[in-house]
Amino acid sequence: MTQDRTIRVSAVVLRNATGEVLTVRKRNTSRFMLPGGKPDPGETAAEAAVRECAEEVGAVLDVAALRLVGVFDADAANEPGYRIEGTVYEHPPVQVAGASAEIAETRWLDPAASPLPGDLAPLLEHHVLPALAP
């Protein structure tokens, strides 16, 4: 039997008033990614995204306000030999309390910055940011 090397996650693009995107870095990791995580059993991707944002950055989201950006596949940032399948949503701006749960640091990122910081997760850098481009 072959082991599934795919990790399925849900994530949310949250922007501030100037259009920057909120990124987070989990404890004991070096790469920044979108807030989000793995769905719990019986939870939809959208429900997981809303729950994870509340846990990680204190953002209260409305599942009905989520807009699907896309489903993307990339190398996992923190699990060597694994792939990430990320269902990514965008939500209208909301108040963000700051890092909590397993999040060590938050950082706002200009999605059009050139060059981009070298510490972004592959899913964010190679798939999500290009999908957000005007």
The low-confidence parts are none
Major β-sheet, in short? Answer: 4 strands, mixed
User: Which topology does CATH recognise?
Assistant: Nucleoside Triphosphate Pyrophosphohydrolase
- CATH superfamily grouping: Nucleoside Triphosphate Pyrophosphohydrolase
Number of strands: 6
Number of self-contained structural domains:
1
Major sheet: arrangement of strands: 3-1-5-4
N- to C-terminal distance: 44 Å
Helix content: 10-25%
The H-and-E topology, N to C, reads as: EEEHEEEH
Number of helices: 2
Q: Report the top-level CATH class.
A: Alpha Beta
- Overall residue-averaged pLDDT value: 94
* Backbone shape: globular
Architecture per CATH nomenclature, i.e. the level-2 architecture? Alpha-Beta Complex
Description:
The protein is globular and about 45 Å long. The protein has two helices and six strands. The protein has a single domain (6-132), classed as Nucleoside Triphosphate Pyrophosphohydrolase. Helix content is 18%, strand content 31%. The model has no long low-confidence stretch (mean pLDDT 94). The chain has helices spanning 45-57, 122-132; strands at 6-14, 21-26, 36-37, 67-75, 83-91, 103-109. The strands form two sheets. A four-stranded mixed sheet has the order 3-1-5-4, sandwiched between helices. The protein has a two-stranded antiparallel ribbon with strand order 2-6. It is an alpha+beta fold.
